Amino acid sequence: MKKCISQNNLKSVYLENNTAIKVFSKDYNKSDVLYEALNTARVEDAGVNIPKLLSVSVNNGQWEITSEYADGITLTQLIKEHPEKTADYIKKMVEYQVDFQKKSNPLLLKLKDKLIRQINGIETLDSSVKYELLTRLNTMPKHTKLCHGDFCPDNIIVNIDDNADITSITAVDWVHATQGNASADIANTYLLLKLQYSDSSIDIADMYMTQFCAATDTKKSYVTGWLPIVAAARMAKNKPDEKELLEHWVNVVDFQ
């Protein structure tokens, strides 16, 4: 018997026989469904340990993607239940991200191309700001590392032991995966953490960036150089609750 474990206006996720069945609304774009399935398969081909894609089908006029079920709890839930262990959890999050960023698949969309398209598509951005952002993007080193595109605690599934320490970790929702510069993906996650934990007494986003830079011997200024670019690209989602923070980071003058 199917059990609904997640639901919004566009899609619902059901658990059945240890599989996760994502059911899309009837008006959901077919090409977007197929792109998500293809991206997931390409991440698998890159050798990342993720819940495997099992099938793509249509049932009662609705597209479905069936994958292995990732048993466990989200990192969001774990941090909420054990805030005293936040630093340890963020370290595990960083370790997993650094590991999958060592992999790549040349068939994945190039991150730079996606960012260019997103920035050019934002009608509310002044043309001079777009020019500065695209100029900055053009100067960034071209890499081919695997980038998740939406790597945040909601998309991270973990298992824990009796001491609430993480024993296994994986990520889901690879629809936005690309090949590109790892620091761009870090900057994007930094923004997601800023948005998710804006009311937290701990600056989890800064903790995350500090741990990544220490683990990879990366200068913090190099990662923050990506912030105006990824913030502008995220503005394409047109989420009112994110507008203030994103506009703050889009101010490229702060990073000259």
From TrEMBL:
Coiled-coil regions in this chain? none
InterPro entries in the record, alphabetically?
Answer: Aminoglycoside_PTrfase, Kinase-like_dom_sf
Q: What SUPFAM superfamilies does its record include?
A: Protein kinase-like (PK-like)
Q: Which Pfam families match?
A: APH (PF01636)
Aminoglycoside phosphotransferase domain: from which residue to which, for each copy? 30-194
Q: What is this protein called?
A: Phosphotransferase
Which organism was this protein described from? Answer: Lachnospira hominis (ex Liu et al. 2021)
The taxonomic lineage of its organism, from the top, reads:
Bacteria, Bacillati, Bacillota, Clostridia, Lachnospirales
